[in-house]
Specification:
The chain has 247 residues and is mostly beta strands. Helices cover 6% and strands 43% of the residues. The strands form 4 sheets. It has a 5-stranded mixed sheet with strand order 2-3-1-4-5, with no helix packed on it. It has a 4-stranded antiparallel sheet with strand order 6-7-8-9, with no helix packed on it.
């Protein structure tokens, strides 16, 4: 098990790749190399610097707020949110490939990638011919990066994301068949999309119970994970267990 640390930006994000934990972003102090890649081997507790650095096109977008990052079982994918330029990193060969263009044949001004059951998906913010904001989901082929549309967010939920100030950018978190979509500037509501096996989507929204007035000036970090029955049973066996459900 080892950790990949991509330096070059002021913020960080974690991802898992098989038995490896990956950390992207973070400030660095490499005078000769502003975009180094380091790998941490948990077994040996040692850092190793890769011969290859992050792609130069990402130098001005190294912060995690400007990038969308996800992993499959074999690769790490990094997409520049505004342009859709995408690279992937193979931790075994320690090599980068790309750039590839995420292009679903319509203009997108905010690209977000995720992994649903090892399938690469794209969630894009775009506008129709009437200049109305839309949020769509595509399945992305990992070899040629061709996009196939899965579904579109109903206007009701787009309005929930817009709230007071509109949408300039969205963020997503994905676990299993569920895609959680939120507006970092308006965190009171999170829109959920369930990707139905065989095609189609089911949409709803949930209130963010921690988005209170006193937290609005702070940056909220979202994550999601599948919880198994075995994990719940282990928690139940704890003597000091405490369950809290908020809605």
């Amino acid at each position: 098990m080892w950790t990949l640390h991509l330096c070059g930006g002021p913020t960080q994000s974690w991802h898992a790749l098989e038995t490896r934990s990956l950390l992207q972003g973070g400030g660095c102090d490499y005078q000769d190399d502003p975009l180094p890649v380091e790998i941490y081997n948990i077994a040996t507790r040692a850092w190793h610097t890769c011969d290859t650095t992050m792609p130069g096109n990402l130098k001005d977008s190294a912060a995690s707020t400007w990038l969308s990052i996800t992993t499959t079982n074999e690769k790490l994918f990094v997409a520049e949110k505004q342009s859709g330029l995408t690279y992937w990193f193979d931790p075994n060969s320690r090599c980068w490939s790309g750039p590839y263009k995420l292009n679903p044949n319509q203009p997108i001004y905010d690209h977000n990638i995720g992994t649903s059951n090892d399938d690469l998906i794209l969630v894009g913010l775009c506008k129709n011919i009437e200049n109305v904001e839309q949020v769509k989901i595509w399945k992305v082929e990992k070899e040629n990066f061709q996009c196939e549309e899965i579904g579109e967010m109903p206007l009701l939920y787009v309005e929930k994301l817009k709230k007071n100030f509109g949408i300039s950018s969205i963020n997503i978190r994905v676990t299993g068949n569920f895609v959680f979509i939120y507006n970092q500037s308006e965190t009171e509501e999170v829109v959920v999309c369930e990707l139905i096996t065989g095609g189609g989507c089911r949409w709803w929204s949930i209130k963010n119970v921690v988005a209170r007035d006193e937290t609005k000036m702070n940056r909220l970090v979202f994550t999601c994970s599948e919880v198994s029955f075995d994990e719940l049973q282990r928690v139940r066996r704890l003597e000091n267990r405490r369950f809290v459900v908020e809605s």
